[in-house]
Amino acid sequence: RNQNQTPPTPHPTAPSTMSSSANESGSAGINIDTMSLDQLNAVKQQQESRLEQLTAQYHQLRAVSARLSTARSSLQTIPVNGTGEGREIMIPLTESLYAPGKIVDPNKVLVELGAGFFVEKSAKDAIKVLERKGKVVDANSDNVMAAAEASSRNAQAVQSAMQGKILEIQARQQGMAYKNSIEGKQ
């Protein structure tokens, strides 16, 4: 996916539209050419706010994905053939607090299913659960990234429309000033 790609500029005679979730499934978007500068500014701020929220959500999903990957890697390092039994480890009590412990049965681990629910699984089955959860998180982060990219394109389209409106207002003002100067000389 090329993230540096800029959206094509609209044809001067074609109305500019802003995409939305519904637009991408085929229905019409918002015609930003008919909006006032104040309306455009409000829409731009809304899109920028949405982009910030989506970006934060994306970073949270990536952090969850990294934790799942770390958990998978940790499980894969514990020998399950009996040699892991009695092995000393550090048990995390919080993100920055650990307590020493020993592995009683390396083939029995608790896996969080979600919402605070845990289930006892074999190490092999726990790895499968973590892989499935990782795939869901990765798919969600891809969806959030696509929504963020759409929101970014929308904000850019609104910014372009605002610049066009400002140029139009300036040209109108210059035309009026020129007309007044011509009429003043007569």
Can you list the strand order of the major beta sheet?
1-2
Name the average pLDDT: 83
Could you spell the SSE succession in H and E letters?
A: EEHEEEEH
Helix content: 55-70%
How far apart, in Å, are the first and last alpha carbons? 62 Å
The poorly predicted ranges are 1-14, 21-27
Overall outline? rod-shaped
Strand residue content: 15-25%
Report the sheet with the most strands, covering strand number, pairing sense and barrel closure.
Answer: 2 strands, antiparallel
What structural class do you assign from the helix and strand content?
Answer: alpha+beta
Kindly state the number of beta strands. Answer: 6
The number of helices is 2
**Backbone CA Rg:** 28 Å
What does this protein structure show overall?
This protein has a two-stranded antiparallel sheet. It has a two-stranded antiparallel sheet with strand order 3-4. Strand 5 and strand 6 form a beta hairpin. Helix content is 56%, strand content 15%. By secondary structure, it is an alpha+beta fold. The N terminus is likely disordered. The N and C termini lie far apart (62 Å). The longest helix has 63 residues. It contains 2 helices and 6 strands; from the N terminus they run E-E-H-E-E-E-E-H. The protein is rod-shaped, with a radius of gyration of 28 Å.
